[in-house]
Write a sequence for this structure.
C-alpha cells in the first residue's frame, strides 16, 4: 500500500521552514526519506526505525509516530540546495523487505 | 553506504528491440532491486534480484518482459525486452546495506524508445 505524502508541493524562500508528512494505512517497521534532484538519482537522507532509533542527515530532522503510522521530515532554515522532490519509503511490519514509495513532495527554495 | 554504477547512463532505442542495463556495486550486497521511474512519477519496484535464484517480480511485471540476472553479490542486469514507447523511463538499481537495509540508488539509466 503506497504511503500518502503531503503536501504535494511547496515553494519557500531561503531560510524558511518546511514539514513533509508521510502516512501509511499499515503498521510500519521503518520509514526512509530520500531527496531527488531533477535528472539525478534519489539520495538517502534518513531512516526512522520502530522503537525510535533515528539515523541520517545532520541538518534535517524527522519524527516517527508508530501508533499513527506517520512520519514527518523537518527542514529548518532551508537552503537553495534543499530544492528537489522528497520521497518517503515505508517498510511494513511483518511484510517483505521491500520499500514502497510515496508520490513525492516537490520543494522549491527561492533566493 | 555503497557506490553503485550503471551502464548505459542513457540510450535511445527503436521499438521492438531490447536493452540490457548493468548495475555494479563496490561491495557484496544481499539485496538488489530494480525500479522504474516514469517522468514526474514515483519509484515503482520492478523486481528483487536474488543471487543464485530467480528474481522476484512485482505485480504487473513479468520475467519475459524484464529478465534479470544476478550472477554474484556485486552485479546484476535488467533487460527491457521488445520495447515500446511506454517503456521510456528511468531505470534504477538499488541495494540494501546494513542491518536496517538502508537502500542506496544507482545513478539510473534514462531510456527513450522511439
Amino acid at each position: 500500500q503506497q504511503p500518502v505524502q503531503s503536501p504535494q508541493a511547496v515553494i519557500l524562500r531561503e531560510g524558511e521552514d518546511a514539514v513533509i508528512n508521510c502516512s501509511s494505512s499499515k503498521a510500519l517497521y521503518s520509514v526512509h526519506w530520500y531527496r531527488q534532484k531533477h535528472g539525478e538519482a534519489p539520495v538517502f537522507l534518513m531512516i526512522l526505525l520502530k522503537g525510535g532509533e533515528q539515523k541520517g542527515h545532520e541538518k534535517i530532522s524527522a519524527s516517527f509516530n508508530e501508533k499513527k503510522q506517520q512520519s514527518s521530515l523537518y527542514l529548518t532554515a532551508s537552503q537553495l540546495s534543499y530544492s528537489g522532490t522528497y520521497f518517503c519509503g515505508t517498510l511494513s511490519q511483518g511484510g517483505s523487505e521491500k520499500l514502497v514509495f510515496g508520490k513525492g513532495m516537490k520543494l522549491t527554495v527561492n533566493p | 553506504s555503497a557506490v553503485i554504477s550503471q551502464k548505459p547512463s542513457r540510450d535511445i532505442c527503436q521499438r521492438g528491440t531490447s536493452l540490457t542495463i548493468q548495475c555494479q556495486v563496490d561491495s557484496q550486497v544481499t539485496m538488489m532491486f530494480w525500479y522504474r521511474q516514469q517522468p514526474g512519477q514515483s519509484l515503482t519496484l520492478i523486481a528483487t534480484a536474488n543471487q543464485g535464484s530467480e528474481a522476484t517480480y512485482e505485480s504487473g511485471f513479468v520475467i519475459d518482459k524484464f529478465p534479470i540476472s544476478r550472477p554474484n553479490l556485486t552485479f546484476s542486469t535488467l533487460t527491457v525486452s521488445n520495447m515500446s514507447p511506454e517503456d521510456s523511463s528511468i531505470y534504477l538499481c538499488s541495494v540494501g546495506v546494513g542491518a536496517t537495509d538502508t537502500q542506496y540508488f544507482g545513478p539510473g539509466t534514462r531510456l527513450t524508445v522511439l
Remarks:
- The mean pLDDT of chain A is 89.
- The longest strand of chain A covers residues 28-36.
